[in-house]
Amino acid sequence: MNIDAYRERNRTRQQIRQGGAIANLNDGIEIEIHGVPTRLIAWPGNGFQTQSVHVLTLAPGVESERYTYDMAEEAMICLKGGGEVFLRGRWVDIVPGDIVFYPERTPRAMRNPASNDRDFVLVTQIAPPEFGLYAPAGFYDQTKGVMVDDALEAAKARATSDQLSPENEMRLSESHPELRAWNLSVDEIRRDGALFNAYKGAAFGGLDVPMVLVLWPGYGVRSTGFHFGRMDAGQVAHLHSHPVSDEAVINWSAAATSTSTAPGCRPARSMSRSPPAAWCTAVGCRPTPASPSSRAGSPRRRNSTSTSTRRSTTTGRSTRRPGARSTRRQPPAVMAEATRHRSTRRV
Predict the structure, then answer these.
(1) What CATH architecture does domain 4-297+332-339 belong to?
(2) Is the peptide bond before 128 cis (omega within 30 degrees of 0)?
(3) Which pLDDT belongs to residue 303?
(4) Is 245 helix (H, G, I), strand (E, B) or coil?
(5) Contact criterion met (CB below 8 Å) for 58 and 36
(6) Integer angstrom CA distances of residue 273 from 187, 251, 320
(7) What's the predicted TM-score (pTM) here?
(8) 306: closest CA among 287, 340, 332, 330?
(9) Using CA atoms, how far apart are residues 65 and 80, in angstroms rounded to an integer?
(10) What dihedral do alpha carbons 266, 39, 86, 194 form, nearest 10°?
(11) How far apart are CA 341 and CA 67, in angstroms?
(12) Smallest Cα–Cα separation from 74: which of 283, 182, 221?
Protein backbone atom coordinates (compact mmCIF):
# COMPACT_ATOMS: atom_id res chain seq x y z
CA MET A 1 0.00 0.00 0.00
CA ASN A 2 1.25 3.47 -0.88
CA ILE A 3 1.30 5.40 2.39
CA ASP A 4 2.47 8.74 0.97
CA ALA A 5 -1.10 9.97 0.83
CA TYR A 6 -1.33 9.45 4.59
CA ARG A 7 1.87 11.34 5.41
CA GLU A 8 1.35 14.37 7.63
CA ARG A 9 3.20 16.60 5.16
CA ASN A 10 0.72 15.66 2.42
CA ARG A 11 -2.47 16.30 4.41
CA THR A 12 -4.15 19.47 5.58
CA ARG A 13 -4.94 20.26 9.17
CA GLN A 14 -8.62 19.56 8.50
CA GLN A 15 -7.87 16.19 6.86
CA ILE A 16 -5.70 15.14 9.79
CA ARG A 17 -8.37 16.25 12.24
CA GLN A 18 -10.93 14.06 10.47
CA GLY A 19 -8.93 10.98 9.58
CA GLY A 20 -5.46 11.08 11.09
CA ALA A 21 -2.03 10.90 9.42
CA ILE A 22 1.40 9.26 9.56
CA ALA A 23 4.21 11.40 10.95
CA ASN A 24 7.82 10.85 11.99
CA LEU A 25 10.03 12.26 14.74
CA ASN A 26 12.48 13.30 12.03
CA ASP A 27 9.87 15.29 10.11
CA GLY A 28 7.89 18.42 10.80
CA ILE A 29 8.22 22.19 10.96
CA GLU A 30 11.11 23.38 13.10
CA ILE A 31 11.03 26.63 15.09
CA GLU A 32 12.75 27.94 18.20
CA ILE A 33 10.85 27.74 21.50
CA HIS A 34 12.38 28.97 24.76
CA GLY A 35 15.75 29.19 23.00
CA VAL A 36 15.77 25.54 21.84
CA PRO A 37 15.37 24.16 18.28
CA THR A 38 11.94 22.48 18.38
CA ARG A 39 10.37 20.19 15.80
CA LEU A 40 6.56 20.26 15.81
CA ILE A 41 5.18 16.71 15.57
CA ALA A 42 1.58 16.75 16.86
CA TRP A 43 0.20 20.19 17.59
CA PRO A 44 -2.71 22.53 16.76
CA GLY A 45 -1.06 23.31 13.42
CA ASN A 46 -1.81 19.77 12.20
CA GLY A 47 -5.14 19.21 13.89
CA PHE A 48 -4.36 18.33 17.52
CA GLN A 49 -6.60 20.13 19.98
CA THR A 50 -5.78 18.54 23.32
CA GLN A 51 -1.99 18.48 23.42
CA SER A 52 1.25 19.27 21.62
CA VAL A 53 4.10 16.82 21.04
CA HIS A 54 7.48 18.34 20.16
CA VAL A 55 11.02 17.06 19.64
CA LEU A 56 13.69 19.26 21.26
CA THR A 57 17.34 18.96 20.19
CA LEU A 58 19.97 20.64 22.34
CA ALA A 59 23.52 20.63 21.01
CA PRO A 60 26.34 20.62 23.59
CA GLY A 61 26.44 24.00 25.32
CA VAL A 62 22.79 24.91 24.61
CA GLU A 63 20.56 25.93 27.53
CA SER A 64 16.89 26.88 27.38
CA GLU A 65 15.22 29.82 29.05
CA ARG A 66 13.67 29.14 32.42
CA TYR A 67 9.89 29.24 31.96
CA THR A 68 6.47 28.21 33.28
CA TYR A 69 3.01 27.60 31.84
CA ASP A 70 -0.04 28.97 33.63
CA MET A 71 -2.45 26.21 32.52
CA ALA A 72 -0.48 23.40 30.94
CA GLU A 73 1.34 20.48 32.43
CA GLU A 74 4.46 19.31 30.61
CA ALA A 75 6.10 15.89 30.37
CA MET A 76 9.56 15.38 28.86
CA ILE A 77 11.05 12.02 27.95
CA CYS A 78 14.76 11.80 27.29
CA LEU A 79 15.05 10.02 23.94
CA LYS A 80 18.75 10.23 23.11
CA GLY A 81 22.00 11.39 24.58
CA GLY A 82 21.62 12.87 28.03
CA GLY A 83 21.56 16.21 29.73
CA GLU A 84 20.17 18.17 32.61
CA VAL A 85 16.74 19.53 33.54
CA PHE A 86 15.76 22.07 36.18
CA LEU A 87 13.41 20.16 38.49
CA ARG A 88 12.23 20.86 42.03
CA GLY A 89 14.57 23.84 42.35
CA ARG A 90 17.83 22.30 41.11
CA TRP A 91 19.60 20.92 38.07
CA VAL A 92 19.30 17.14 37.63
CA ASP A 93 21.03 14.88 35.11
CA ILE A 94 18.77 12.45 33.19
CA VAL A 95 19.34 9.60 30.73
CA PRO A 96 17.27 8.07 27.90
CA GLY A 97 14.11 6.55 29.35
CA ASP A 98 13.74 9.12 32.13
CA ILE A 99 10.54 11.18 32.12
CA VAL A 100 10.27 14.56 33.83
CA PHE A 101 6.85 15.84 34.90
CA TYR A 102 6.09 19.51 35.53
CA PRO A 103 2.72 20.68 36.88
CA GLU A 104 1.35 24.00 35.73
CA ARG A 105 3.13 27.12 37.11
CA THR A 106 6.28 25.10 37.96
CA PRO A 107 9.64 26.55 36.80
CA ARG A 108 11.48 24.38 34.29
CA ALA A 109 14.45 24.43 31.93
CA MET A 110 16.84 22.05 30.19
CA ARG A 111 20.50 22.20 29.14
CA ASN A 112 23.17 20.12 27.46
CA PRO A 113 26.52 20.70 29.21
CA ALA A 114 29.31 21.84 26.90
CA SER A 115 31.37 18.87 28.10
CA ASN A 116 28.95 16.44 26.39
CA ASP A 117 29.81 15.18 22.91
CA ARG A 118 26.26 14.30 21.79
CA ASP A 119 22.95 16.08 21.25
CA PHE A 120 20.43 15.95 24.08
CA VAL A 121 17.10 14.94 22.50
CA LEU A 122 13.77 15.20 24.34
CA VAL A 123 10.22 14.39 23.28
CA THR A 124 7.84 16.68 25.14
CA GLN A 125 4.09 16.76 25.66
CA ILE A 126 2.33 20.01 26.59
CA ALA A 127 -1.30 19.67 27.61
CA PRO A 128 -3.39 21.58 26.88
CA PRO A 129 -1.48 23.21 24.00
CA GLU A 130 0.11 26.60 24.63
CA PHE A 131 -1.04 28.35 21.47
CA GLY A 132 1.07 31.41 22.15
CA LEU A 133 4.23 29.37 21.49
CA TYR A 134 3.39 29.40 17.79
CA ALA A 135 2.62 33.12 17.45
CA PRO A 136 6.22 34.40 16.99
CA ALA A 137 6.62 32.10 13.95
CA GLY A 138 3.40 33.47 12.45
CA PHE A 139 1.42 30.25 12.85
CA TYR A 140 -1.10 31.55 15.40
CA ASP A 141 -3.06 34.79 15.26
CA GLN A 142 -3.46 35.84 18.89
CA THR A 143 -5.91 38.61 18.01
CA LYS A 144 -8.33 36.30 16.20
CA GLY A 145 -7.48 33.16 18.19
CA VAL A 146 -6.97 30.99 15.09
CA MET A 147 -4.18 29.10 13.37
CA VAL A 148 -2.88 30.75 10.16
CA ASP A 149 -3.31 28.12 7.46
CA ASP A 150 -1.36 29.88 4.71
CA ALA A 151 1.70 30.25 6.95
CA LEU A 152 1.41 26.63 8.05
CA GLU A 153 1.29 25.24 4.52
CA ALA A 154 4.22 27.40 3.41
CA ALA A 155 6.30 26.22 6.38
CA LYS A 156 5.44 22.56 5.67
CA ALA A 157 6.67 22.98 2.10
CA ARG A 158 10.00 24.38 3.35
CA ALA A 159 10.53 21.86 6.17
CA THR A 160 13.57 19.59 6.11
CA SER A 161 14.12 16.25 7.85
CA ASP A 162 16.36 15.45 10.78
CA GLN A 163 18.54 12.32 11.03
CA LEU A 164 17.84 10.79 14.45
CA SER A 165 19.38 7.34 14.74
CA PRO A 166 16.85 4.47 14.93
CA GLU A 167 18.49 2.73 17.91
CA ASN A 168 16.39 2.65 21.08
CA GLU A 169 18.63 4.06 23.86
CA MET A 170 15.95 4.14 26.57
CA ARG A 171 16.57 2.06 29.68
CA LEU A 172 15.50 1.69 33.29
CA SER A 173 17.12 4.21 35.63
CA GLU A 174 16.42 4.85 39.29
CA SER A 175 19.01 7.55 39.96
CA HIS A 176 18.07 10.50 42.18
CA PRO A 177 15.71 8.45 44.37
CA GLU A 178 14.68 11.56 46.29
CA LEU A 179 13.09 12.91 43.08
CA ARG A 180 11.44 9.71 41.85
CA ALA A 181 7.65 9.73 41.83
CA TRP A 182 7.39 6.40 43.66
CA ASN A 183 9.17 8.00 46.64
CA LEU A 184 7.02 11.16 46.74
CA SER A 185 3.45 11.86 47.80
CA VAL A 186 0.79 12.94 45.32
CA ASP A 187 0.76 16.40 46.92
CA GLU A 188 4.52 16.72 46.47
CA ILE A 189 4.28 15.69 42.82
CA ARG A 190 1.39 18.08 42.17
CA ARG A 191 3.29 20.97 43.72
CA ASP A 192 6.81 20.62 42.30
CA GLY A 193 6.87 17.76 39.77
CA ALA A 194 8.84 14.51 39.80
CA LEU A 195 11.15 12.20 37.91
CA PHE A 196 9.67 9.04 36.34
CA ASN A 197 11.05 6.31 34.10
CA ALA A 198 9.39 4.69 31.10
CA TYR A 199 10.13 1.18 32.38
CA LYS A 200 8.56 1.50 35.83
CA GLY A 201 4.83 1.84 36.48
CA ALA A 202 1.57 0.10 37.36
CA ALA A 203 0.71 -3.01 35.32
CA PHE A 204 -2.25 -2.66 32.92
CA GLY A 205 -3.53 -4.94 30.15
CA GLY A 206 -6.83 -3.42 29.10
CA LEU A 207 -6.00 -3.40 25.36
CA ASP A 208 -4.66 -6.97 25.28
CA VAL A 209 -1.16 -5.47 25.44
CA PRO A 210 1.23 -5.81 28.42
CA MET A 211 1.54 -2.21 29.53
CA VAL A 212 2.60 -0.08 32.47
CA LEU A 213 0.92 3.16 33.45
CA VAL A 214 3.85 5.47 34.08
CA LEU A 215 2.57 9.04 34.16
CA TRP A 216 -1.12 8.88 35.12
CA PRO A 217 -3.72 10.12 37.66
CA GLY A 218 -2.52 7.62 40.25
CA TYR A 219 0.38 10.03 40.73
CA GLY A 220 -1.80 13.13 40.67
CA VAL A 221 -1.24 13.86 36.98
CA ARG A 222 -4.23 15.68 35.49
CA SER A 223 -3.66 16.51 31.83
CA THR A 224 -0.45 14.85 30.59
CA GLY A 225 0.30 11.14 30.71
CA PHE A 226 2.57 8.38 29.53
CA HIS A 227 1.98 4.62 29.18
CA PHE A 228 4.60 2.12 28.11
CA GLY A 229 3.94 -1.37 26.72
CA ARG A 230 5.21 -4.17 24.51
CA MET A 231 3.92 -6.61 21.91
CA ASP A 232 5.35 -9.86 20.66
CA ALA A 233 5.70 -10.62 16.96
CA GLY A 234 2.31 -11.23 15.40
CA GLN A 235 0.35 -9.97 18.40
CA VAL A 236 -2.71 -7.82 17.72
CA ALA A 237 -3.98 -5.22 20.14
CA HIS A 238 -7.65 -4.71 20.88
CA LEU A 239 -9.40 -2.55 18.28
CA HIS A 240 -10.38 0.54 20.20
CA SER A 241 -11.40 4.17 20.02
CA HIS A 242 -11.21 7.15 22.34
CA PRO A 243 -14.56 8.98 22.35
CA VAL A 244 -13.07 12.34 23.30
CA SER A 245 -9.43 11.85 22.37
CA ASP A 246 -6.68 12.64 19.93
CA GLU A 247 -3.97 9.99 19.67
CA ALA A 248 -0.47 9.95 18.20
CA VAL A 249 1.50 6.69 17.91
CA ILE A 250 5.31 6.70 17.80
CA ASN A 251 7.10 3.49 16.86
CA TRP A 252 10.33 3.28 18.88
CA SER A 253 11.89 0.31 17.05
CA ALA A 254 11.30 -2.57 14.61
CA ALA A 255 8.05 -2.51 12.58
CA ALA A 256 4.31 -2.27 13.19
CA THR A 257 1.02 -1.84 11.37
CA SER A 258 -1.86 0.38 12.38
CA THR A 259 -5.49 0.39 11.30
CA SER A 260 -7.30 3.71 11.57
CA THR A 261 -10.83 4.57 10.56
CA ALA A 262 -12.55 7.87 11.12
CA PRO A 263 -16.27 7.74 11.91
CA GLY A 264 -16.67 11.44 12.47
CA CYS A 265 -13.45 12.42 14.23
CA ARG A 266 -13.01 9.30 16.35
CA PRO A 267 -10.44 6.94 14.81
CA ALA A 268 -10.30 3.32 15.91
CA ARG A 269 -7.02 1.50 15.68
CA SER A 270 -5.41 -1.90 16.08
CA MET A 271 -1.73 -2.75 16.29
CA SER A 272 0.27 -5.79 15.28
CA ARG A 273 3.98 -6.14 14.80
CA SER A 274 6.43 -8.56 13.27
CA PRO A 275 9.13 -8.58 14.54
CA PRO A 276 8.46 -7.03 17.95
CA ALA A 277 8.42 -3.25 17.77
CA ALA A 278 8.44 -0.23 20.03
CA TRP A 279 5.84 2.51 19.81
CA CYS A 280 4.43 5.52 21.63
CA THR A 281 0.90 6.92 21.60
CA ALA A 282 -0.45 10.30 22.62
CA VAL A 283 -4.13 10.22 23.61
CA GLY A 284 -6.47 13.07 24.45
CA CYS A 285 -8.44 11.58 27.33
CA ARG A 286 -7.52 10.64 30.87
CA PRO A 287 -7.02 6.89 31.52
CA THR A 288 -9.19 5.06 34.02
CA PRO A 289 -7.25 4.99 37.31
CA ALA A 290 -6.06 1.62 38.55
CA SER A 291 -6.31 0.64 42.18
CA PRO A 292 -4.11 2.62 44.59
CA SER A 293 -2.24 -0.57 45.48
CA SER A 294 -0.76 -0.67 41.97
CA ARG A 295 0.48 2.92 42.08
CA ALA A 296 4.14 1.92 41.86
CA GLY A 297 5.01 -1.21 39.94
CA SER A 298 7.48 -2.60 37.46
CA PRO A 299 6.69 -3.98 34.00
CA ARG A 300 6.41 -7.72 33.89
CA ARG A 301 9.10 -9.46 31.87
CA ARG A 302 8.89 -12.69 29.88
CA ASN A 303 10.96 -15.56 31.33
CA SER A 304 13.42 -16.32 28.54
CA THR A 305 14.46 -19.62 30.14
CA SER A 306 11.07 -21.32 29.80
CA THR A 307 10.64 -21.22 26.03
CA SER A 308 12.76 -20.81 22.93
CA THR A 309 11.40 -19.01 19.87
CA ARG A 310 12.60 -19.72 16.35
CA ARG A 311 11.34 -18.73 12.89
CA SER A 312 9.90 -21.51 10.71
CA THR A 313 11.49 -21.57 7.27
CA THR A 314 8.31 -22.88 5.66
CA THR A 315 5.51 -20.87 7.20
CA GLY A 316 7.22 -17.82 8.67
CA ARG A 317 5.43 -18.49 11.96
CA SER A 318 7.11 -18.71 15.34
CA THR A 319 7.42 -22.17 16.85
CA ARG A 320 8.34 -22.83 20.50
CA ARG A 321 10.19 -25.64 22.21
CA PRO A 322 8.76 -25.80 25.75
CA GLY A 323 11.36 -25.83 28.50
CA ALA A 324 14.28 -24.95 26.22
CA ARG A 325 16.63 -22.10 27.03
CA SER A 326 16.38 -19.16 24.69
CA THR A 327 19.42 -18.65 22.47
CA ARG A 328 18.32 -15.26 21.14
CA ARG A 329 16.62 -12.58 23.18
CA GLN A 330 13.58 -11.13 21.45
CA PRO A 331 13.52 -7.31 21.64
CA PRO A 332 10.28 -6.23 23.30
CA ALA A 333 7.79 -3.96 21.64
CA VAL A 334 7.50 -0.79 23.65
CA MET A 335 4.59 1.58 23.66
CA ALA A 336 4.27 4.89 25.39
CA GLU A 337 0.92 6.59 25.63
CA ALA A 338 0.53 10.27 26.44
CA THR A 339 -2.97 11.03 27.70
CA ARG A 340 -5.03 14.05 28.56
CA HIS A 341 -8.56 15.46 28.72
CA ARG A 342 -10.06 17.18 25.70
CA SER A 343 -9.38 20.90 25.81
CA THR A 344 -12.22 23.38 25.61
CA ARG A 345 -10.07 25.66 23.45
CA ARG A 346 -10.78 25.47 19.72
CA VAL A 347 -8.74 26.42 16.72
Answers:
(1) Sandwich (2.60)
(2) yes
(3) 31
(4) coil
(5) yes
(6) 39, 10, 18
(7) 0.76
(8) 330
(9) 21
(10) 20
(11) 23
(12) 221
